[in-house]
Design brief:
alpha/beta, nine-stranded mixed beta sheet, six-stranded parallel beta sheet, 13 helices, 19 strands, globular, binds 6-O-phosphono-beta-D-glucopyranose
């Protein structure tokens, strides 16, 4: 495949570009044997082409990129420009065209916006006024999450983007959709009739989606303190997992069919009631044996910040398949363990036939889908222990996705390949991102923050989201 694209990366010197995007781009171009390309970095501070090129080389080295991949990536044209006003966007458009011209590239452009939502509208308008979106080849606009900061801003950004971009040119990124184990969800559900037959309110009692992190801010206070967990994780990553778990089978596996089914889930999702959410912020504690400071001690976090670093929610989807089945969502930073797991709890049999000491000795069937880091799944079920007495024990049928652990493409590589190939399946459509914001609107900027010590599984208050007979949050 030789589509010879020019990558114009806005926010090119930011954390995301340095740690994920640029290393993934180099690997994708090498894997796809694309040698004709150009990289134009764009930022707000001025810097020379050479210093940008050195930054690119450093990022690739830090990411462990093979030397031959680095050599061929930096052999292509690499430029850097700072933009602020309309005139600088005009200069950018001119530099991009000149670079393409000099390298004989056909003006196929990936405009990658790795910038915070507050800069999105101005950047898109700058692109539009300069004509950068109007080359002779194809142009694709990639927008990092979070897309907007609430429903109103997301709508406004969509409206601005659609002034010159057709929706089929827009790739709203949620990198969780590029993870192997998340991509596996639809395969798991829709090829295994054993599970799909029982994937509904008649057989499932509850579904829990937990994305726990041990990391803190990693120097991203500037971005994170403006966003907080609901905007940074819930509205996008957890919601995407939720829609893949809850959606109906699409008519085909093409992007419009899948997006349409995901939007239907969001439309059926009840707006979150205030007492169905617990949000928290970490205080000092111990993570993996090391003492760590609290959120308010993180460099760059304002003294009295009430930004949440944890959220736990009880969500209801009022449709035919899921009515009455609670979905529990939980995510947090500085928790006891890094672990992303979906726990599907099945209803118990109607009558308990086996008792021990007056209580039912049967357990609930549970499907645990481990998204990361120990990718795989466990199916928990009951068996009789050998012996005269009828003793029941719960055992796990465990499947490990060793191939994923052995290093399948990382999420950004998968998504960048799709952008280059023009496949929007793993991206988020305009109406989908708006529907997701609408559901979480009551949670944004809530003040009642529950503290939790770093290294724990979040505030105790989160337990009250589950009714007494609904079990407990999965242990991390
Ligand atoms: C990012 C969030 O989108 O996802 C981060 O901004 C979070 O706050 C990260 O840490 C988690 O992604 P991963 O791939 O490391 O699980």
């Amino acid at each position: 495949m030789t589509d010879a694209p020019t990558f114009v990366v806005f926010g090119a010197t930011g954390h995301l570009s340095r740690t994920k995007l640029i290393p993934a781009l180099a690997r994708v171009l090498a894997a796809e044997h694309i040698t004709d390309h150009a990289l134009i970095g764009v930022g707000s501070r001025s810097r020379s082409d050479d210093s940008f090129r050195s930054m690119v080389e450093d990022s690739l080295r830090e990411a462990g990129t093979p030397p031959n991949v680095t050599t061929s990536f930096v052999a292509a044209p690499i430029r850097y420009l700072a933009v602020s006003d309309d005139a600088s966007y005009d200069t950018l458009a001119r530099v991009v065209a000149e670079t393409e011209d000099a390298a004989g590239l056909p003006q196929n452009r990936v405009l990658y916006l790795a910038i915070p939502p507050s800069q999105l509208d101005a950047t898109v308008m700058g692109v539009q006024s300069s004509g950068l979106d109007n080359g002779d080849g194809w142009t694709r606009l990639v927008v990092e999450k979070p897309f907007g900061t609430n429903l109103a801003t997301a709508k406004r950004s969509n409206e601005i983007i659609h002034r010159s971009f057709h929706e089929n040119q827009v790739y709203r990124i949620d990198h969780f959709l590029g993870k192997e184990t998340v991509r596996n969800l639809l395969v798991f559900r829709f090829t295994n009739s054993l599970f799909e037959q029982t994937w509904n309110r008649r057989h499932i009692e509850s579904v829990e989606i937990t994305v726990a992190e041990t990391a803190g801010l990693d120097g991203r206070a500037g971005y994170f303190d403006e966003s907080g967990t609901v905007r940074d994780m819930v509205q996008n990553h957890l919601t995407q997992i939720l829609t893949l778990i809850a959606m109906e089978p699409p008519v085909t596996m093409d992007a419009p069919s899948i997006h349409t089914e995901k939007v239907k889930v969001l439309s059926a999702m009840r707006q979150i009631e205030p007492d169905h959410a617990v949000i928290g912020q970490y205080t000092p504690g111990v993570v993996a044996g090391h003492p760590v400071g609290g959120y308010l001690e993180e460099p760059g976090v304002p003294q009295r910040s009430t930004t949440p670093t944890f959220a736990a929610l009880r969500v209801h989807i009022d449709n035919w398949r899921w009515h009455g089945v609670p979905f529990f969502l939980r995510t947090g930073k500085r928790m006891s363990k890094r672990s992303s797991i979906i726990t599907v709890r099945y209803l118990r049999p109607p009558i308990c036939l086996f008792h021990a000491e007056g209580t039912c000795s049967g357990h609930q069937n549970v499907l645990r889908m481990r998204l990361q880091p120990d990718e795989g799944f466990d199916l928990l079920f009951d068996v009789k222990q050998p012996g005269d007495e009828t003793r029941i024990e719960q055992i796990a049928l465990t499947v490990n996705y060793d191939a994923v652990r052995a290093g399948a493409a990382d999420a950004y590589e998968t998504l960048l390949t799709d952008v280059i190939e023009g496949d929007q399946t793993l991206f988020v459509r305009a109406d989908e991102v708006e529907a997701a914001w609408e559901r979480y609107e009551p949670l944004l900027d809530r003040g009642d923050i529950h503290p939790y010590a770093a290294g724990t599984d979040g505030p105790e208050g989160a337990d009250r989201l589950m009714l007494p007979d609904e079990g407990m949050w999965a242990r991390l």
